[in-house]
Amino acid sequence: MVSKNNFSPLRLGTIEIRMPVIQAALSGYSDAPMRKIARKFGCEFALCEVLLDQFVVAVSKKKSRFYFADSDEHPIGAQLMGCEPTQFVQAAQRLVGEGFDLIDLNFACPVKKVLGRKRGGFLMSDPQTALDIVAAVRKNVPDSIPLTLKLRKGFDDSPQSRKHFFELLDGAVERGICGITVHGRTVRQRYEGESDWDFIRTVKQHLLAKNRPDIAVIGSGDLFTAAICQKRLAESGIDGLALARGVIGNPWLFREVSAALRTEPLPTENGVPGPSLAEQAEVIAEHFRLSSELYGEHRAATTMRAFGVKYSMLHPDYESVRQDFVQVKTAADWHGVLEKWYR
Q1: pLDDT tens column, 177-207
Q2: Which candidate, 127, 109, 248, 265, places its Cα nearest to that of 191?
Q3: Residues 65-85: tens digit of each pLDDT
Q4: Which of 78, 136, 178, 300 is at 20 to 30 A from 106, Cα to Cα?
Q5: What distance in Å separates the CA atoms of residue 320 and residue 1, rounded to the nearest whole number?
């Protein structure tokens, strides 16, 4: 039933997400500190960084704490990537044992090295192998654990690639997935050009025509502002949105999207949209503290540089702040940048 706010909760099997907006898996970014900051601003469900099946099977308990979920992060999903069913199953079983609430299979990654090893987006050109993986994982993890897919609109823009997309989608539905995230670019496009939201809408219409309204469709690609998110969700008729690059260094986007979908005024500080410098400083400091607790201050100081660059984009003196964040090497450097630019 559609709510008075013109959106419904996002349902992924046994998981219900009241605000239909999730944080996507982001390689190099969506670790526990980032996910915890996102939750502070209304993100109810997040995916960890994409994990290679071989790594999940082999990683030690001591090292796994950097990559797996904390006990206070539920619900939390794990995104898994590989190239053959057996190790996918072993990895999925371990992730369930480690407490993840959902398994997402990545058949979308466009990185050249990944494609060369027949992982990620390569599997969009080999739907039968992809379906073998889906069937094996669904058979070997508990029914209570939702299984979803991450796809792109195709391997390329050819008619054959489009055929493969729907062959893979329909086969995966038959094998028991409950949802799909679609990035509106092809694997060959990587992040060039615009995300094709007409195609994402077509995916939902296809499932409705197949009488499968229960299969959630989540759209991804070029979601950088609350207005765009509101527009994409309304026009596409899909079930949810996956925020990716737009929330790196801008967790406030979750709060803003929530307000937009509820048709409420966007949050402002003294009439100015967006977070104040004081709020930015508070959140950046909290993010660094969480990162230091997980990795130690030395590793956090360098790990967080990429986040600092992204956070700086909201500062009025972006270029200068960015340059200072790029040069940080210690915890003292971090606190120095905050004192200098966010005081």
Answers
A1: 999 999 999 999 999 999 999 999 999 999 9
A2: 109
A3: 999 988 889 999 999 999 999
A4: 300
A5: 49
Question: Using an 8 Å Cβ cutoff, are 182 and 217 in contact?
Answer: yes
- pLDDT confidence of residue 271: 65
Place of tokens 């709060």: 255
Residue 183 φ then ψ, to 5°: -90, 130
**Pair 215, 169: CB distance under 8 Å:** no
Q: What are phi and psi of 171, to 5 degrees?
A: -65, -40
Q: What is each CA distance from 178 to 9, 104, 217, 236, 311, in whole angstroms?
A: 15, 10, 9, 19, 35
CB neighbour list of residue 65: distance below 8 Å, 6 or more residues apart: 294
Neighbours of 231 (CB within 10 A): 14
Residue type, 180: I
SS3 for 294?
helix
CB of 155 closer than 8 Å to CB of 190: no
What letter would DSSP give residue 267?
Answer: P
Residue 109 annotated in active site: yes
HSE at residue 92, side-chain half, CA atoms within 13 A, is: 29
- Of 255, 253, 216, give the one whose Cα is nearest residue 237: 216
> What's the one-letter identity of residue 209?
A
Q: Which of 43, 83, 109, 229 is catalytic?
A: 109
Helix-helix angle 226-236:197-209, to 10 degrees: 30
The Cα 238–Cα 182 span in angstroms is 10
- For the CA atoms of 314, 316, 320, 323, the dihedral, rounded to the nearest 10 degrees, stands at 0
